[in-house]
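EI: anyone free to look at a 333-residue chain?
SC: sure, send it
EI:
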Amino acid sequence: MKTLLFHCLILLSAVTQAQFNGGYAPAKWTISKTPGSNGSMDVSAAPASIMLSGSDSIDGNNEDLDFVITVTSAGNWGFSWSYRTYDDHPVFDEAGVLVNGVFTVLTNASSSVGQSGNYLGGFVNAGTVIGFRVRATNNIGGYASFTISNFSAPQMLLPVKLKLFKATERNAGVYLIWQTLMEENASHFEVERSYNGVDFKILATVGMGGANGTYSFMDHHPSAGNNYYRLKIVDKDGGFSYSENVKAKIGAVTDVKLFPNPVIQDLLLKVQSSAEQKEVLTILDGTGRVVSSEAIWLREGMNHIHVPMAIFKSGVYVIKLQEAQKSMTIIKN
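SC: here you go
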C-alpha cells in the first residue's frame, strides 16, 4: 500500500465567525421593544438563522423590535436577509440594520411585500453596537418578518493557530498528527472523518495541552479508498472553526500473484483484497502503450481473474492494477 502525505499550513488570526454561535449565540444578544409593540423573536433555527417578527398593532405609532449585541473586537460584518410583510404595503413595516443606534432601512418601501438582499456592513471597531430592527407603523394588515442568515461578525482571535495537520497511512490505519503555534481560550479538538469530503462524523475528542503543542490520533478503522479528515477547533465560549481537510488513501489490495509467466494463452491473476472495491486492470506493451484496459470488481478475499493473452503479439508486457498502484511484468511467447 502506498502512503500518501498531505500537509496543510493554517495560520488563523482575526477572522469572521459565521452564523449565530459562540460569542454571537442568540443568548448573547439583547432584545428590546418600544412600548406597545408585540413583536417577537424566533431563534429556533439558530445558529443558521434568526427571525424578527414586527408588531401588528394598529395604533399608528412607530413600534420597534430590536435585536442588538456589542462587538468584542474589530473587523468586518455582514449577512443575508429576507423579508415578508403581511400588511398591505411594505412602507408600514420597515426592516433594517442598527449601528450604534442609527437605523438604516434595507427594505424598499416602493417594492413588493416580499424582498431579500445581502448587507455588507464593512469594518466596525470593538465596542460598536450592531443589530437588526423591524419598525411597524399603522399595521392594518399584519406584521412583517425579517430573517437573517449567513451572518458573519467580527470575532476575537481564534483560540488556536494551527501550523501543521498531516494524515499518513500506517499499517492499514491512518495516523493523524497536528501542531499548534498558539492556544488561547481554547477548549478541545474534535477529530472528524468523511469518505466523500463532504459529510463528516466525529471520531474523537482531544483536549488541549499537548506537549509542545503536538497532538496525534490513530484511526484504526478507515475505509478502503479515500479517507478525509478535519479538525473542529472549539473555544471555551462555544465558538469553533474548522481546519482544512487532509486525505489519506487506503489500498484494499494486499497481494497479487500471476502465472504462468511466460504465458502463451491465458494468464491467471490471484488478487487478495481486504475489501470490496472497483479496480482497473490495464495492460501495456513494451513501449508503454496501453493495449487493454477494463474495469473489474474485487470482492473481499481471494479473487481469480483470467486474462486472455493469445490475442497479443510475443513480447514483454506490464499488467497494472491502477487503484492499488501495483504493476507486474510478464513475457508473452
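EI: The longest strand covers residues 75-85.
SC: 👍
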